[in-house]
């Protein structure tokens, strides 16, 4: 049986999203390093795996995929009987989980990606943080978290009573912001704070953070 391959970097949030899903499903995989500092993600052979030149790219036998959320959905569907069940089987519960997957992609990710770039990554590259961008997106983040607080007051996880892809997809960007002053916005909302503590303590996520530490 061919080993699953993830082409990317453990420092990439999108790569982390695919990796934590594989860890939750208890699957064997190889990480194929892509030197993004050298621009390898914009060149062959990687560009043949993802024509947009973004990590990760994914291979399972003769199947090639890109886009991290598409990868996680495939992994859950293909390997549903292994590890943690990440999408409910009931059609109505599945639909609710799908709504919150869309919320993450369209409301949480755009804001937290901009904040992560400005606060976490720009200083690493010797660039100046744009405070106007930070203030604008910090306000947007607070509005998103208010919605989450309301949802999590009624449900243990965003997608329902059980951990699912709706929660898992948040982990990479969430982890990055917890190391910044923006952590206060998560901690000040009790249900959000409890949810954050729960999902970031999962053993599968610890394995991904360990991979990052080894890179």
UniProtKB/TrEMBL annotation:
Its EC number is 2.5.1.18. Coiled coil: none annotated. PANTHER family: GLUTATHIONE S-TRANSFERASE F6-RELATED (PTHR43900:SF47), GLUTATHIONE S-TRANSFERASE RHO (PTHR43900). GO terms for cellular component: cytosol. The keyword Transferase applies. It comes from Parasponia andersonii. It is found in: Cytoplasm, Cytosol. Belongs to the GST superfamily. Phi family. It catalyses: RX + glutathione = an S-substituted glutathione + a halide anion + H(+). Residues 90-215 form the GST C-terminal domain. Gene3D superfamilies: 1.20.1050.10, Glutaredoxin (3.40.30.10). This is glutathione transferase. Keywords: Cytoplasm, Detoxification, Transferase. GO terms for molecular function: glutathione binding; glutathione transferase activity. The lineage of its organism: Eukaryota, Viridiplantae, Streptophyta, Embryophyta, Tracheophyta. It comes from the Eukaryota. Residues 2-83 form the GST N-terminal domain. GO terms for biological process: glutathione metabolic process; toxin catabolic process.
């Amino acid at each position: 049986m061919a080993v699953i391959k993830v082409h990317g970097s453990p420092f990439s949030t999108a790569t982390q999203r695919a990796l934590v899903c594989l860890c939750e499903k208890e699957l064997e995989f190889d990480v194929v390093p892509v030197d993004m500092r050298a621009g390898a993600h914009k060149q062959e052979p990687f560009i043949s795996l993802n024509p947009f030149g973004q990590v990760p790219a994914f291979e399972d036998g003769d199947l090639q995929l890109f886009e991290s959320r598409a990868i996680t959905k495939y992994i859950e569907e293909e390997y549903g009987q292994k590890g943690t069940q990440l999408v409910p089987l009931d059609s109505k519960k599945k639909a609710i989980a799908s709504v919150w997957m869309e919320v993450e992609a369209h409301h949480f990710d755009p804001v937290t990606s901009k904040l992560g770039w400005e606060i976490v990554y720009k200083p690493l590259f010797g660039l100046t943080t744009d405070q106007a961008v930070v203030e604008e997106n910090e306000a947007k983040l607070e509005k998103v978290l208010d919605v989450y607080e309301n949802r999590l007051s009624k449900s243990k996880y965003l997608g329902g009573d059980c951990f699912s892809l709706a929660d898992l997809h948040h982990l990479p960007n969430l982890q990055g912001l917890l190391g910044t002053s923006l952590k206060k916005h998560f901690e000040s909302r009790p249900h959000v704070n409890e949810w954050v503590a729960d999902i970031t303590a999962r053993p599968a996520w610890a394995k991904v953070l360990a991979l990052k530490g080894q890179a």
